[in-house]
Every structure is written in C-alpha cells, then in structure tokens.
Amino acid sequence: MSDSDTQNATDALRTPIVAVLGHVDHGKTSLLDKIRGSAVSEGEAGAITQHIGATAVPLETVSTMAGSLVDPDDFDLPGLLFIDTPGHHSFTTLRSRGGALADIAILVVDVNDGFQPQTEEAIDILKRTGTPFVVAANKIDTTPGWNPQDGAPIQQTYEAQSQRARSMLDERLYEIIGQLSDSGFSADLYWRVQNFQKNVGVVPLSALTSEGIPDLLAVLMGLSQRYMKDEMAIDVSGPGAGTVLEVKDEKGFGATLDVVLYDGVIRAGDQIVVGGTNEPIVTEVRALLQPRPNAEIRTEKRFDKVEQVGAAAGVKIAAPDLDDAMAGAPVRVVRDRPLDDVVEEVRKELAQISVETEEDGVVVKADTLGSLEAMANALKEAEIPILRAEVGDIAPRDVAVASTAGEDVHQVILGFNVEVLPDARRELEESDVKLFSNDVIYQLVQDYDEYVEEIQRAQQ
Ligand code: GDP
Predict the structure, then answer these.
(1) Residues within a 6 A CB radius of ligand 1
(2) What is the pTM of this model?
(3) How far is Cα 121 from Cα 364, in angstroms, rounded to an integer?
(4) Are strands 104-110 and 17-22 parallel, antiparallel or unpaired?
(5) ipTM score here?
(6) Which of 47, 135, 222, 405 has its CA 20 to 30 A from that of 59?
C-alpha cells in the first residue's frame, strides 16, 4: 500500500485472517470447534460472529479467553478471523493479490504422530507463500501421566509435569522442532521465542482439554499486532476485494459465491468482477447473505440479508451469471473505477496462476485455483506433462479430452479434492481413461508414477 493510501482518512485496521492446516486427524476441526465453543461459553452474546466460511473472534473475546496473556489495551487490531474449513490444504493456497489469502496459519501437528505427508505439503505451501505460522503441537493430554493445571498458561503446566511425563513430551516436541528445522525453519517452544518473524513458535496444546489454546490465541494476536499491522491497514470505504472460497448452488438464489473479503467494502447492488473459467464475469450483487444465527439446516431461511460487509469478513454473494465462477478466483467491486480497469486487474491476477500445458499429457482437475497451481508445480517437478488443467469436478468432457491423449500413459485424469460427476463415471467405465483421485498431492504423483511403471513393464 502506498503512503497516500495509508494516510486516507477512512483508514482502519482489519482483522487478520487465520487458516488452520495440517495432516488429517491431527485435530484441525477439534481445534477450531474448541476456539469457537470456548469463545461462546466464556463470552456474552456477541462473543463471536459466525460469517459465511469464517468465524470472527473479537479482541475482547480473545482477551477474555486468554486471560492475563492478552491485555486488550496493548492491541489495536480488532481480533482474529478464522477460516472455518480446515483440512483442505487448498485453503492455504487461496490467494489474494498474489500472496496467500490467509495472513497467518496454524499448523496443527499431532505430538504422537509428528510430521506426516500433509504436514510437509502444508510447510511447502507456507514457505512458498511466505505466510507466517505457529505450530499447534496438539494432543499433549495423551502424554502418559499428564497432569493438567486448571487454567494455567501452558508453560506453567509444562513445567509442573512429573519428570517422566515431561521427558516423554519433550521427546515428542523436540522431534517436531527438529523436523521444522529440517524444513528450514528455526523453531522453539513459544515462550522461548523472541522474534516470531524469525522463529516459529511451537505451542503445546490440547484441542480436547483446551490447555494451551489461550496461549495459541495470545501468540496469534501478538504476532499480528507486532509484525503485520501495516498489512492490516485498509481503506474501509474503498471498493471491496476478496477471494472465492466456494461456488455453491443455493435454493432460491442459484449459483452463489462464498467469499472472504480482505479489503474495502462490498454493498448490495455493487457491480463486481469475478474470475471465471473462461473470462472474468461482470455482474451485480443481488444480495449479500450471512448465516442466520441458530437457523435450522432444513428451514428455508438460512440466511439474513445484509446491506454491506467490510473487510475482513466472510460473506455469501448472490448475483446472476455466477455458474462459471471459480473457487480461488478474485472478486472485485468496481465502484468509482472504470470497469475495464477492474476486468484487466482480475485477468492479470488469474494469469499469475498460470499452468503450462503441452501437446500431450494428463488431464488435471482441482478444487481451487491455488490447488491447481500446487498440482501443476508438483507435476512439473516430477516431469509429468499436462494436456489440460482446470478447476472443477470431473465432467464427461474431461474424459473425452483425456482419451485424446497420444500416449497410453497420458490417458489419465488426476483429480485433487474433486468429485466425479455421475455422467463422467459412466464414460470412464466405457473408456480406457484411468482416473486417480486423492486429496494428497504427493500421493497422486506417486500413484501415477507407479501406474506408468506398471504399463511400461507390461509393454516390455
Ligand atoms: P482433523 O482431521 O485434523 O480435523 O482432526 P479432528 O479434529 O477430526 O481430530 C481427529 C481425532 O483426534 C478425533 O477423534 C478427535 O477427537 C481427536 N483429537 C483431536 N484433538 C485432540 C486432543 O487434543 N487430544 C486428544 N486426546 N484427542 C484429540
């Protein structure tokens, strides 16, 4: 942001956007649920705000939860916005203006399990996007002889353990710290870290008992306040900018966008530009929707209409012509600018996520633009050529395209985190096209390599 921007009279600090990632079963969902749940049980009404795709925890709630660890007077950031859906590491590959959509990440690692393939993948992505992160060393309650200390900061709890429990936990924690170091990050237990920009803080915690969660919140808050304040300064009345989390059909609204807004404001009636599979889509916001508190899933009225939403926030946008919109694509409000400029901006941003395709190769489908890019990078490294790469579920057209590949080993579809549409499944059965589907990139590459070897052996 330029100086003139930061001196704008309507400048304010927005909420940092936090993503949770890590290997399956390491406790991402439990951790998010716990943060939301404890916020609600400890605070009054308004302790958190449920957005579309995200949960906002205001500073006051963070400070209630974190007790002596967070003095609200030390902070001027408004709180933390957690992206709700963990697990799909694609979330960390969601971009904003070339960087990562998330400002900070929590990397959850099960202390019993250490680094696993999805932990490694997450680390690679964090490295590539330069996203600061904190490690949640989860499930410390499973340490044999664990002795919880009610409500104490985790350092105190850690120091109060029997020698036996302490040394068992230490062994696990230092293995994680060692693995972080092997990945190029100097890390330590968070209370020993002086500079969170240089070193990764490891917070031992339990998503089951909540021990250590106040500490995690305090570290996230402190890290953003100290090192990210400049990036959080936005023009609150400027044209909104966001990233599509998901494109969803909603009864009564047709295709809608679940968006995380990271800049400016979006209003009902605004003209917007959205990244589409072919061309940027130009349309007008018909309604901005937020989840209705306590709404039953089955009731028709699951959403409340709001007139405007300011960053950072999650919101559902209902508008015509959104069928071709892509998860991971940029959304821009046009307001007070020439439409052509905004279209060009969206086109440029999409072009940054370029995937090189060849005359012959495999077909790649992925759930978001970011994950498509991550797939393309992994395939390039493995020297696997790509014939076509697209965001979206596997459709009959993909089977048709894959069957046109020249070499047998290229008549393949690699699907990352996507579904196979019923028609495509039928076509797959009737064709020679082979499908590999997974939500772990390295596994897809490995499965494909093994398949190629198998074919080559059979041909000898
Ligand atoms: P995710 O796949 O990373 O979202 O993992 P989940 O949150 O679904 O957790 C996987 C399993 O680990 C579940 O059975 C949880 O109950 C359990 N679990 C998560 N966190 C903890 C923890 O801190 N302690 C213990 N003992 N179990 C946990």
Answers:
(1) 22, 24-30, 86-87, 138-139, 141-142, 206-208
(2) 0.84
(3) 18
(4) parallel
(5) 0.99
(6) 135
- Measure Cα distances from 348 to 193, 244, 260, 344, 376 in Å: 39, 16, 20, 6, 19
Residue 358 φ then ψ, to 5°: -125, 180
β pairing state of 95-96 and 99-100: antiparallel
3-state secondary structure of 185: coil
Q: Is the pLDDT of residue 7 over 80?
A: no
Angle at which helix 396-403 crosses helix 422-430, to 10 degrees, equals 30
Look at the block and give the residue holding tokens 């500079």: 195
Question: What pLDDT, on the 0 to 100 scale, is given for residue 431?
Answer: 94
Helix axes 369-381, 441-459, angle to 10 degrees: 40
* Sheet architecture: strand order including 434-438: 386-391, 362-366, 412-416, 434-438
Q: What is the pLDDT of residue 354?
A: 65
How far away, in angstroms, is 138 Cα from ligand 1 center? 8
Q: What is the DSSP string of 196-227?
A: TTTSEEEEE--TTT-TTHHHHHHHHHHHHHHH
| Residue 74 in tokens | 């030390």
Instruction: Give tens-digit pLDDT for 244-257.
Output: 988 999 989 999 99
CB 259 within 8 A of CB 240: no
Q: What separation in Å is there between the alpha carbon of 24 and the centre of ligand 1? A: 9
Query: With 0-12 CB in 10 A as exposed, 13-18 as middle and 19+ as buried, what is 356?
Result: exposed
Residue 352 clears pLDDT 90, i.e. is over it: no
Per residue in 41-87, pLDDT (tens digit) is 655 556 788 899 899 999 999 998 898 899 999 999 999 999 987 75
Ligand 1 centre distance from Cα of residue 176 (Å): 18
Of the candidates 133, 112, 139, the residue with the CA atom closest to the CA atom of residue 207: 139
